[in-house]
Amino acid sequence: MSDLELNPLFARTDEATSFPRHRIPEAGSLPETAYQLIHDEAMLDGNARMNLATFVGTWMDDHANRLYSEAFDKNMIDKDEYPATAEIEDRCWRMIARLWNAPDPDHTMGTSTVGSSEACMFGGLALKRRWQHRRRAAGESTERPNIVLSSAVQVCWEKFCNYFDVEPRYVPVSEEHRVLDGHDLDSYVDENTIGVVAILGVTYTGMYEPVAAIAAALDDIEDRRGLDIRIHVDAASGGMIAPFLQPDLEWDFRLPRVASINTSGHKYGLVYPGLGWIVWRTQEDLPEDLVFRVSYLGGDMPTLALNFSRPGAQVLLQYYLFLQLGMDGYRRVQGTTMEVARYLAGEIGKMPDFELWSEDLDIPVFAWRLAVEDASGGARRERKWTLYDLSDRLRMHGWQVPAYPMPDDLSDVTVQRIVVRNGMSHDLATLFVRDLRTCVHYLDGLAAPLPSSADCGQGRGFHH
Ligand SMILES: Cc1ncc(COP(=O)(O)O)c(C=O)c1O
Questions:
Q1: What confidence score (pLDDT) does residue 14 get?
Q2: Can you state which reaction this protein catalyses (predicted)?
Q3: Taking the C-alpha atoms of 129, 195, 156 and 240 in order, what is their torsion angle to the nearest 10 degrees?
Q4: Extended strands (E) in 266-311
Q5: In terms of CB atoms within 10 Å, which end of the chain has fewer, N or C?
Q6: CA of residue 70 to ligand 1 center, whole Å
Q7: Ligand 1 midpoint to CA 310 (Å)
Q8: Per-residue pLDDT reduced to its tens digit, 300-323
Q9: CA dihedral 154, 425, 346, 405 (to 10 degrees)
Q10: Structural domain of residue 395, as residue ranges?
């Protein structure tokens, strides 16, 4: 047998079986050896389908997988070289503009991005630039812009404020006001407020912020104080749920105060990681000086992107799903995902140790905490374990279910959360419930409390 026929690869003469970790090795290796090594190391990752922490797409069908592999070499920015992909991007955001009830979808602006974070940066930048133009035109200072948002915003908004010098004014969540709901908004806004962020699907809990109530509070503020403050809706997850499952809920461009909306194509848009969308209400809501022109078929094409190069394949995948599922298919897929989430929430809510964070579900995401009282309202149950211990224990069955503290002013509350996505069947969900019960039973049976893993920096990060 020649050396190259020898398998496993690691038994071949002169073949490296381990590589330096932080330096490019001097000599290369056979492609199959390098492949096998990396393939094996990646096995140490969790199983993406059992990752109930992520919002991001982990399942697509074989046609999508085929399209992906046919298009992984396309650069989204090369509009001139890939005019078909550029045209499809344009069609997709126009479809989304209609989905979100833009008043005049032919007279608006949108774009794909690498995810919701980039889209939020643009939403925030457009609000800031508009405010600056208005203030300059009135001969007023543009020194100290601020933005009002819930303390439960996703970390991308903290980044926006940090990177683009905007003061964040966080409205704390509390037991009474579990989301930003317009309450006390008056004391947070002033003439330097560039906008208010409303979240459709709070990352921590899945709850919708009532965009209409926030808009009404801002209407009232405008009447009394003359401040015209617009809303950006961060619909990273809800933007592709609400149009299908809650079509009568007014959260989008039906509300005149909503200037822009983002979503993640790679969340409930159902595409693999690497895709976000943002759409503005009208072209005027996006200041012209934020737009760059690239050459496109001898003409010019407006573009908006923080990065220059970026994969184009995900845009084709989004278009594939729009054509393949249609409105009806999206309704059915999201509806099924929601049913599975309701089933899981129902089972977990019934268990005496847990208390669901909210009664009903907005998106197929829910959180729970340890029950303070027993089912009959009696005294606190004696428990030797925490949700962090449960999270650890579930990992032994392959499930990844994060536990983490809530943001201010609820940081003493720990919750655990499940994100149900397309691909989590009812069947799989029943197996999860079985494993969850096994884990609780095991933890209950321990003689002594586990050393607290909450102190090991676990928790935050999972959901961010
Ligand atoms: C409400 C919200 N906004 C923004 C983001 C960031 O999205 P992306 O991961 O697409 O950048 C997330 C991600 O979970 C989110 O839940």
A1: 66
A2: L-glutamate + H(+) = 4-aminobutanoate + CO2
A3: -110
A4: 276-280, 292-296, 299-303
A5: N
A6: 28
A7: 18
A8: 778 899 999 999 999 999 999 999
A9: -30
A10: 338-455
pLDDT in tens, 154-171: 999 999 999 999 999 999
In a domain, 270, yes or no: yes
Peptide bond connecting 408 to the previous residue in cis, omega within 30 degrees of 0:
no
Residue 122 and residue 38 share a domain = no
Which tokens belong to 178?
A: 């579990």
Residues 342 and 202 in one domain: no
Structure tokens of 459?
């928790």
Where residue 410 sits, what CATH number does that domain have? Answer: 3.90.1150.160
Spatial distance between the Cα atoms of 84 and 86, rounded to a whole number of angstroms: 5
Encoded tokens for 381: 């149950």
Cα distances (Å, whole numbers) of residue 222 to 123, 193, 218: 21, 12, 6
Pocket test for ligand 1, best of 54, 114, 116, 262 (most atoms within 8 A of CB): 116
**Which atom of ligand 1 is closest in space to residue 55's alpha carbon?**
14
Q: Which residues line ligand 1 (CB under 6 A)?
A: 55, 115-117, 120, 154, 156, 199, 201, 203, 234, 236-237, 264, 276
The reply to whether 461 falls in a domain is no
Q: Give me the residues of the chain with pLDDT under 70, please.
A: 1, 4, 7-10, 13-17, 297, 373-381, 450, 452-464
Claim to verify: residue 345 and residue 431 sit in the same structural domain: yes
Ligand 1 atom with least separation from CA of 153 = 1
- The CATH number that applies at residue 127 is 3.40.640.10
Query: Ligand 1 mean position to 160 CA, how many Å?
Result: 13
Sheet holding 146-150, edge to edge: 109-113, 276-280, 258-264, 231-234, 193-199, 146-150, 167-171
Global pTM reads 0.93
Mutate to test the pocket of ligand 1, among 121, 240, 264, 266 (most ligand atoms within 8 A of CB): 264
CA of 430 to the centre of ligand 1 (A): 28
Q: What is the pLDDT of residue 459?
A: 42
How much distance in Å is there from the Cα of 123 to the middle of ligand 1?
13
Single-letter amino acid, residue 112: S
Residue 94 in domain:
yes
What phi and psi, each to the nearest 5 degrees, are found at residue 212? -65, -40
Ligand 1 mean position, distance from CA 234 (Å): 8
What pLDDT is recorded for position 379?
Answer: 61
In a domain, 69, yes or no: yes
In whole angstroms, what is the distance from residue 205 CA to residue 444 CA?
A: 26
Cis geometry, peptide bond prior to residue 8 (ω within 30 degrees of 0): yes
